[in-house]
Amino acid sequence: MRSWTVGDIKITQVVEMPVEIGVLDGLIEEATPEAVQQVPWLHPDHADAGGQLIWSLHSYVVDTGSEVIVVDTGCGNGKSAPLIPAWGNLDNPFLERLGEAGYTRDKVDVVLGTHLHLDHVGWNTVDEGGRWVPTFPNARYTYVEDEFNYHRGIADENDISSDLAGAVVYEGANPDIRNQTRLVFAQSLQPCIDAGLLDLVPTDHIVTEGVRYVSTPGHTKSHHSVMIESDGQCAFVTGDFIHHPCQIGQPGWRSHGDFDRALSAARRAEFVEANADSDLLVLGTHFAGTSGGRIVRDGDAYRLEPV
Ligand SMILES: [Zn+2]
């Protein structure tokens, strides 16, 4: 289990599972095997010898000393995932691994979500006797209000298209996405709402001392990454703002899963340039290998140096 220290804060990666090679092929359309092979530093951690991308599903536990925060909660066990069938009905020992890291379910104070896609909210709940119940009974489940309302609008069939001017993909217009969003709400969010554990917060909200949301829209309407700062050091949990490390080498490579691909690419290019050769520890929510690294200049491009 990998962990990093940022000032007084400890961050631990808890892996749910590696993604089977091929499941996400084509998600980033520019990342063809031929194009990926032109980016040699991606092999072997982030791409195989044939140029197929390697991905991971994991959470980060941010332990400030006074609070335990779980950032994103993977796919979960036994969930319905018709949109990505390989991620449905899973049976992974994620909670056992969380326990091995020192965090039992009752010790989690905050669940923090970057966005509401099925692979980021799954361990919000567990099946107990045929009923979905909150996994972390003492936690505040925290989401940015705009992000929550956007997905709720899709699930509820509200006409939110006027909200989405300029979006490349109107997710709500896709019946498969609408159905998946309803399942996400029913299985992974509503039980937390019913238990009174949901907190909706404004954009760029400060969660606790040293931990704050940073607006990184594009993958979803109000996607937020998470900045962690302590004693002059900082780390940044990407969420799907940087979906795969190939987008550090090529910030313009866009994901089919993005709500607004042009916005996502533009914000990513700014971020990579602004943080290159800095001490910022970048923790990728789907990065395989060490999952953490620093952005360094590499000729006229950039790469991720593992940390
Ligand atoms: Zn994701």
TrEMBL record:
Alphabetical list of InterPro entries matching this protein: MBL_superfamily_lactonases, Metallo-B-lactamas, RibonucZ/Hydroxyglut_hydro
Sequence ranges assigned to domain Metallo-beta-lactamase in this UniProt record: 56-286
This protein's record includes keyword Zinc: yes
Keywords: Hydrolase, Metal-binding, Zinc
Sections of the chain in a coiled coil: none
CDD domains: metallo-hydrolase-like_MBL-fold
PANTHER family associated with the record: QUORUM-QUENCHING LACTONASE YTNP-RELATED, QUORUM-QUENCHING LACTONASE YTNP-RELATED-RELATED
Family: Belongs to the metallo-beta-lactamase superfamily.
Protein name: MBL fold metallo-hydrolase
Organism expressing this protein natively: Streptomyces tauricus
